[in-house]
Amino acid sequence: MEINAVKSKSNFKNFKKVKNSIRILSLVILLFTSNLMVFATPVNSAKDIKVKNIVELNKAVKNSTAGDQIILANGIWKDVQIRFYGTGTKENPIVLRGETPGKVFIEGASDLKFGGNYLTVRDLHFRNGYTPSSSVVSFKIDNNTIANNCKFTQCVIEEFTQPDRDVSDHWIEFWGRHNELSDSYITGKSNFGPTLRVFLDGNENIYNYHQIVNNYFGPRPRKGGPHGETIQVGDSETSMAPSHTNVYNNLFDQCNGEVEVISNKSNFNEYRNNVFLESEGSLVIRHGNYNVVDGNIFIGNDKSNQIGGIRVVNTGHWITNNYFYKIRGEAFRSAISIMNGIPKSSLNRYNQVTDVVVAHNSFIDCESPWQLSVGSNVSQSAVLPKSEIRSARPERVLFANNLIYNELPDTHPIVNYDKVDGVTFKNNFINNVNNSEVKPAGLITTNFGVTKVSDGLFTLKENNREVYHGFDFENITKDLFGNGRTETNNSIGAIVNPIKGNPLLVDRSKYGTNWYEVNQPKAPANKIAVSTAAELVRQLAKANSGDVILLKSGTYHLKSSLPVNKQITIASINSKNKAKLVFSSEKTAFEMQPKGHLILKNIVLTGNKAQNAFTTLDQLMSKAYDISIENSEISNFKSVLEVSKGSFADNISLLNSKISNCENGFMLNKEKNDGGDYNAEFVTFTNSKFDHIGGVILDYYRGGYDESTIGGNIKMEGNTIINSGKAQPENILIKNRGIVNVSITNNVFKNNPVKTIAVLWGEKGQTPGKNTIEDSGEFKVVQNLEMKLMY
Amino acid sequence: MEINAVKSKSNFKNFKKVKNSIRILSLVILLFTSNLMVFATPVNSAKDIKVKNIVELNKAVKNSTAGDQIILANGIWKDVQIRFYGTGTKENPIVLRGETPGKVFIEGASDLKFGGNYLTVRDLHFRNGYTPSSSVVSFKIDNNTIANNCKFTQCVIEEFTQPDRDVSDHWIEFWGRHNELSDSYITGKSNFGPTLRVFLDGNENIYNYHQIVNNYFGPRPRKGGPHGETIQVGDSETSMAPSHTNVYNNLFDQCNGEVEVISNKSNFNEYRNNVFLESEGSLVIRHGNYNVVDGNIFIGNDKSNQIGGIRVVNTGHWITNNYFYKIRGEAFRSAISIMNGIPKSSLNRYNQVTDVVVAHNSFIDCESPWQLSVGSNVSQSAVLPKSEIRSARPERVLFANNLIYNELPDTHPIVNYDKVDGVTFKNNFINNVNNSEVKPAGLITTNFGVTKVSDGLFTLKENNREVYHGFDFENITKDLFGNGRTETNNSIGAIVNPIKGNPLLVDRSKYGTNWYEVNQPKAPANKIAVSTAAELVRQLAKANSGDVILLKSGTYHLKSSLPVNKQITIASINSKNKAKLVFSSEKTAFEMQPKGHLILKNIVLTGNKAQNAFTTLDQLMSKAYDISIENSEISNFKSVLEVSKGSFADNISLLNSKISNCENGFMLNKEKNDGGDYNAEFVTFTNSKFDHIGGVILDYYRGGYDESTIGGNIKMEGNTIINSGKAQPENILIKNRGIVNVSITNNVFKNNPVKTIAVLWGEKGQTPGKNTIEDSGEFKVVQNLEMKLMY
Questions:
Q1: Which of A562, A661, B132, B779 is the most exposed place for a label (fewest CB within 10 A)?
Q2: One MF term from GO for this chain (chains A, B) (predicted)?
């Protein structure tokens, strides 16, 4: 059933008039009955009102009173802008809910805004659409109609993302006070803008005590640029405000949007008992002071160097009872990253770290978990203005009662990027010898034992009672699991024995709705044999994501582009006698669309030099795509890959393949806004051959002085590049300006008439690897690249 | 009686050891008696221990326990460094007090530091000395011995100021938590550094809830440079810290140190019910946010344009129930000054003003009391870096329920230095027509009447109940006098009728100690007739401050300098036949010493061209001096006045006098540190004649881009300057670089062979006045002076 939205002006303006009338009436009553107190409570009719379209919904909202339930009929609600206003009470909120959880879908150009007091929304599923305003859910209708004590709970927001990734929005905007997002599943935002944002502009929005609890924040894909946070609380301009937002008991599962999974930018917030599971980023106390980060679990599982822990800027934070497991990120992404500040920093840059306590945390099998003076960049004074130089070292910082355990010794638990003179270490314990440059007496090597309680969860065999009693430490009353720390039972590290029960590091069942299955069962992949071009076109269109199309040997003449909008494998049945796809299509052989993931195996692709092998859509590349080429041959194209500005590839990989006779190779160079964005995350060329590429074999660009992202990756190993670059006007073979991670080793460069193979960025640790170079110019290294300032 | 100090190392280190032992013991007790709680309380012997010297004092401190009183014997305690440590209780503090209030004096190189818990000091009088450390009184002995719940009360600190004004100290340093300065009289600090300073560096010192109550802050002289605050709470580097200092019920009487009488630089402080009496400066919320300024009284009495009210920077302040009487300061010193900020300001500059509420204040006979976007300096972009340009206008600022009453209409109650787009006005009332550029509907002209309750105190004849109910306004529960604001009885302005009793704006008896008489009776001025040089020298040395030396007609040959260290008038008995002082002294005729105030009337001074007429001491000019020359003649000196770097004259005035045949005139040009300091505050030449001055008639310098001070004053009116400047190498007659207030009108400049009379600073409103100029060069105007940045 699809319910058509009927355009209707919402009635919250009348609501405001009514509110004012009530106010005046109340005043009058108070004035004339000063001895006899009169409380005018509304008669609680507590209606259930079922609505089938937006007109009925608006009418129901307009007429609702405390205790009412407005029930959205099952089906798809398309293009609806819900304005939910009114005045409930603590005991009798006004509820707006789906008829049957899991059967009410909000789709199309839709959003939902709260205004009033004690309003609850539940059991809605947002999908197949995006907001036409700046937010999907907002706790404010306008500046005069702000929500307080309102709740968005038991809902799903799934890939409700803008068609254009460059268009900015938030999925949940917090305004007002005492609002709540709970028990919801939120996933798949791929456009510009934090998923959830707390606003503090205006006195109505401070001291907010918002509750963000028990949610399942599912995967947020890499964004390839900044502004991909999952939660942002405040901003630099309101970073002086007392916020008091509570983020408790949430799961952050692969929230990979950018370097800040959570970006704290205000004061007195509390982050407790959340699990960060393989999320490529950190909980970052970016601005604001006196925040609490307690009892959180950070799990890296050694999956990637991008998975971090807690990064600290500013003053007065307490980081206690946290548990870090197999975190191997470094610098910005280390388990604990204490930054250097900019002296007298401007409001939106980096204040010095002072008065921070890091106590009673456990670091299990992490690599160099304590990194100090991170971001120190005095060496870049030549390319950065003074106002960007982070030279103010941490002051009055205390590390105490922490536990570092490594199954295999971690000889450098501390990494320091500057002198360490403002950090005190007291009663921290490690089970191997510390060979770091910094060897404080307060990091003590002893041979303690640990017990494995469950997957990834280790505790001390016996409590270590050598606990340092620092200033205000009596306020650390509980451990990771909420068990008491007492004078008689306390321990170093995040956990005090005995642990009750048999806790799990991650129990996915604790988070999100009580009705939505996060891990939908996958259809098994079909294998579809194809022997003609027409069949290939038809089956490609019909296939389910994950299917494999198997081509018989032979030649396939394709006059039109093949669109790819799902995961599809195209492979030759006989790898010895590869199928040959010959394209006479106009613009491109394959058109990569959002979520397209093309895997070519044992295929020969040939063009007529008039088209590219792969291109993206020109616009609305709302989600990432992937290209994986294996044991294949590509020849006679203009470019191998041409992309559009807003497009983003997560992975481009080439393995055991040959590219020849093309004008250019892979052109990931259209995102030139110099705001830190770029067109692909990972570009990997392995054991492949480039022959007679007229221009560059790769042009991959990232501009702007930004540190929010992984920053792009080039890995070239075992390739041979010959006879290329002849027509390259800049005399260069690989353009990689601004890409952070570049590794080019064990390749052969031969007979390429260029001056430069590639320019490497010394400050990012890029060095010319071991390559065989013959008549092919050379690698150049520039220590400090001058980038455009973004701030 | 003078008690000699005996040098003795204080024993607080042992105290700490004992404290630790007790702690360990307590732990052991707790560990072994988990079921049976044991509290080891000290036996309260409650001793009174009278001590006569520092050795006895140290011993008594070492042995003291809760309830003890350590009594300092009457007399002068010289060169004592008191370290008062120990552990009292709330009910039984340890008390250190003077034997008889008013008879125990702390003198010489002395100080007092607290460390511990519940310690009280009372009945001491600090005078005739200065601290050898960085503070006179400190609530901290060292970083491990900080005071909590300690009290300094019923004490006097009087001119306990550093001999060298450039040496920085504080008289009271607050550290720790819950400490108190109360019922004390504090006056006469003339050196560098705020009188009282609250420190927030380190978690031990935040959430401090210090009480600064019922004190009498007596006159603090003009400093002629920054760092002359009476109270500073925090600093820019700790301006993010929650402070919660309470400054209640204090009198600030002529606290003229600099533009900030109080400099707030932290969060959540409260300034309530203080009286600012003719203090040349403002209560300035310079850094930090969410501060409360409630129920204070600002009295200008039209005495000076330097007397201000409240100046606001940053976010979230509530300015309520304040009463402003005859404040005529403008810009930085207006009754309410809301500043423009610097976009994304660095930590130590100016943040934008946002979310500020100015409500229920009364402005009685003030001039243009509301000044908005103060400090806007976009016009100075040429001489200032971008990081100094205050272009961020106030945002989300609310003026509501304020009352402006003028006996004589103030046609421009609002002055705006930039566009006003972020300020909302609601239900403010004024009794004359508002002809300001900004004419908000929320500033309503009505012809209301007022009642005079007492001197300077006016209330509305009838409450004006048209009160705007803004967000959180229900928290404004009381008026200026603590009377309730209720739904049934409320009013516009600071005061709700009926007022109880007959309150006074200023009741000096409410402040300071219960034993010290602030207004000491003055000895009547003696008139001393003198007829010989020797007698003059002898009587000058003997005279009391305020005395008048009357010279018979005749010539006095003086071979030595005459020192002036008090107020002294030297006058001719016969003004028609003036006494002539002929100097052959080496360096100077008169040597101005600290607190010297020389008044010359009807005197002829002549030198031999080898010495100056007036000089200051070369160093240790601890306090200001004044020179007042009337109906006198000065000739044949090198310079009329030569000063030393650290010296400061409050007033230099010349009236109906003649200066001739000198190399130079008044040389107030030695303070060249370019930190905003300068050598004199007011220089006034009236109806006088300068003839044959070889160089400049005045060289008066102030360097550094600073706004903390009045900035120096030149007023020249009705003078004749002839035949001067012939030997001036820069071809200029008056050097006044950096002086803020310059008025040169109705003078005659004739036959002075210079190019430039003076360079005027356009941005400060300096314009060439109406002067007669003949063969004397011209005035130049430079719009924006390039000054040295100090930050």
A1: B132
A2: chondroitin B lyase activity
